[in-house]
Amino acid sequence: MKQSLLLLVVLGILLHVPLEGQKRTVSRAERFAKPDSKLVVEEERAWPRVSLPMPTGVILEASAVLPLLSKRLLVTSRRGELWLVEGAYDDPPVLRCSLYAAGLNEPLGLSRCPDGGFYVVQRGELTRVIDRDGDEHADKFETVWQIPVSGNYHEFAFGPFPGPNGTVRVTLMLAYNAPAYSPVPWRGWMLEIDPAGRMTPIAAGFRAGAGAIYSSKGIWLTTENQGEWMGTSHVTHIEPGDFIGHPASLEWSALPGSPVRLKPEDIPDGDKPIFELAKRIPGIKPPTVCLPYATLGIAPTDIVEDTTNGKFGPFAGHYFVGDSGQSRILRVTIEKVRGVWQGAAYAFREGFESGVARLHFGEDGSLFVGETARGWGSVGGKLHAFERVRWSGDVPFDIREVQARPDGFLVTFTRPVDPVSASNPASYRIASFTYQHHSSYGSAPVNRWMCPVRKAVVSSDHLSVRLGIACLREGYIHELKASGIRVGGREEALLHDTAYYTLNRIPEGDRIIPSEPQSGELCASPVPETTLAPTAKHPTELPADWSRREGDRTILLGTLPGMRFDQDELHVKGGERIQFVLRNDDDMLHNFVLCAPGRGEVVGRAALELGLSGAEMSYVPDTGDVLYHTAVVMPGATDRIFFAAPARRGDYDFICSVPGHFVTMKGVLHVR
Ligand SMILES: [Cu+2]
Predict the structure, then answer these.
(1) Which residue, 158, 283, 354, 639, could crosslink 371 as a Cys pair with Cβ 3.0–4.6 Å?
(2) Residue 550 belongs to what H/E stretch?
């Protein structure tokens, strides 16, 4: 029991999404209801989602899905089973499940074995599962390769991700005991295992790389989560010998077979972005496509390629990335520029019931979505879910792809644009920024510049726009907002108006604008530096008229792993002078925001809407619903504020407004 609790805590830390509250009151949960925005309704029209209901008595916490012949699925459950599932393609779906295997240790992936049977990654081994007598029950479990574990609860194994020639790859999580460490070989690595059980180390620097794919382009891509030594989440092209950021894994780079030459002390802990370090330290691989934290998910999981040849809609060949914390799916495109892969990320579909963990396309172009939030929590709110997404045939007006050009970008659309709005530079807003690479948890977006749009040229078919932009910066993420453009002939705006392009290399070729800066163009930050300074709502200075530092009452509120405060009910008297201390014992960033009665969810959502500018505002939206707040507190640190409790009696919500946290990180201050 204690162990499984630890496991939950750890998964929460690992994927930095909330732990299921142990003692949540229903009334609070009701207040924090599911999202039902206009956007989700629009997305639903083009990509409707249907829940795949389990037969009575079956708890299928789908952690991997493998389509079999005759519209059957083999599904792993995090609870340790393999289920044969029929009926998942039917309308409406009525599932029939039969148990194929049981007793596995937290399987988080599944693939076909070239010699028959299936590969399953358990915590401690890559296993080949075989049904020898054909009775649809596994009867042989072969250890293909034993995964090193020290026994630390944090040592998860993801995969098997199938590669060429019958090989599979796995990614091994670091152990964790504040901070993350690598106690046994290959923790924090991607490894390749061939059918004979021979292991080849591939790449290091992983932290929580939960997804990987061998793409039709013949390259490997992985997902990685924001955290220590990861400024933001990302998708990255992996080649043998690469190091993607977390130095704990480098403990093992001197072992025989390692293609990685770096040692832990080679990685400086400072304020430089990773692409700057990569310029002078060979072996460091900067992200291929960054997923800005909070804006495009908080905990990316699986990555799949749309190989449905149009059955899933207009994004054939693009990648879809699941996000556990925000219960959504993102879209990613890549291109190779001057020998380096890079590309863009876009919103795709929100509103899933639980944390999106695994994705797999079925034979008819259906996307099966395995979801779990046990130990993680998610915006969707359910503990687990299994859903199916199909394309309705509707093509929404959307950005199809952003590609780099020597002086800007080429933006293509799913439908012809209105040439008047699309050729007006004022229809676009472009900014660039990056993240720092350091041992502390995540990074705020830094060095943000606005990029003036000088020219917008619409193609003759009206399906693309060439943008000429000043102030492009290599290595930086470029945020392209095209909110001013409309679809041809109608007053319809883009379904998702923003893309994030990671510009590792600026291409060569023809320009549409001269390279010299124009007068008045300023490649500089319009955004003020983050401040921890006292304000009316962040009252860190002892008020002059207080005789005692403690006031009438001191409240010490702590944090727990998995996005919870250590108390969800606080009691004060109206008007009492309060010294309030938030002590962050967790390994993530948190704040405390005291809200007007019943306004916690509204404030939490408004904080989410702040997007990239949120970090500079301590994720506190500028609204009368916020009474007082602390700064965003680093792990192991505290922030102290002094305020008088509201005079009016009532139940005042408090939340952590760091994006995604408020769903579980909340409570009530009772004023009597
Ligand atoms: Cu928090």
Answers:
(1) 354
(2) none
Q: How far apart are CA 72 and CA 417, in angstroms?
A: 41
**What are the tens digits of pLDDT across the range 632-646?**
887 667 788 999 999
SS3 321: strand
Multiple choice CATH, 21-33+527-672, 2.40.50.140, 2.60.40.420, 3.40.50.12780, 3.90.220.20: 2.60.40.420
What is the distance in A from the centroid of ligand 1 to the CA of 591? 6
Whether 313 contacts 247, CB under 8 Å: no
pLDDT exceeds 50 at position 175: yes
Distance from the CA of 563 to the center of ligand 1, in angstroms? 6
CA angle 389, 395, 400 (to 5 degrees): 95
If we measure between CA atoms, which residue out of 146, 143, 171, 176 comes closest to residue 157? 171
Q: Which CATH class is domain 399-502?
A: mainly beta
Measure 379 CA to ligand 1 centroid, in angstroms. Answer: 14
Structure token pair of residue 630: 């602390």
Say whether pLDDT at 97 is over 70: yes
58-74 tens-digit pLDDT: 888 999 999 999 999 99
- Contact indicator for 314, 400 with CB cutoff of 8 Å: yes
Asked whether the beta carbons of 594 and 669 are under 8 A apart, the reply is yes
Q: Residue 4: is its pLDDT beyond 60? A: no
Interval between CA 13 and ligand 1 midpoint (Å): 12
d(CA 431, ligand 1 centre) in Å:
27
CA of 17 to the centre of ligand 1 (A): 9
Burial of 213 (0-12, 13-18, 19+ CB in 10 A): buried
Examine the pLDDT at 616 and tell me if it is beyond 90: no
Task: Report how far ligand 1's centroid is from the alpha carbon of 577 (Å).
Answer: 25
pLDDT reported for residue 449 = 79
Could you tell me the CA-to-CA distances from 63 to 113, 205, 225, 306 in Å, in that order?
A: 18, 24, 18, 20
In the chain, residues under CATH classification 2.120.10.30 are 34-389
Backbone φ and ψ for 321, nearest 5 degrees, come out as -125, 125
Helix ranges, 351-506 (H): 419-422
The whole model's pTM is what? 0.77
Task: Give residue 657 CA to ligand 1 midpoint distance, Å.
Answer: 6
CB 65 within 8 A of CB 368: yes
Query: How many helices (DSSP H) and strands (DSSP E) are in the chain?
Result: 6, 43
Q: What are the C-alpha distances in Å from 213 to residues 52, 86, 107, 157, 218?
A: 25, 26, 18, 15, 10
> Which of 257, 255, 210 is CA-nearest to residue 236?
210
Count the Cβ atoms, other than its own, within 10 Å of residue 463: 16
Q: Where are the beta strands (DSSP E) in 352-405?
A: 356-361, 367-372, 384-389, 399-405
**Terminal C-alpha separation, the chain:** 39
Q: How far is the CA of 568 from the centre of ligand 1 (A)?
A: 13
In the reported structure, the alpha carbon of residue 656 is separated from the centroid of ligand 1 by a whole-number distance in angstroms of: 5
CATH of range 34-389; options 1.10.3720.10, 2.60.40.2470, 2.120.10.30, 2.40.50.140: 2.120.10.30
Whole-number Å distance, alpha carbon 248 to ligand 1 midpoint, is 25
Please choose, from the candidates 110, 102, 103, the residue with its C-alpha nearest in 3D space to the C-alpha of residue 66.
110
Ligand 1 mean position, distance from CA 177 (Å)? 20
State the distance from the centre of ligand 1 to the C-alpha of 236, rounded, in angstroms: 27
Report yes or no: 294 and 660 within 8 Å, Cβ to Cβ: yes
For the stretch 244-261, pLDDT in tens is: 999 999 999 999 999 999
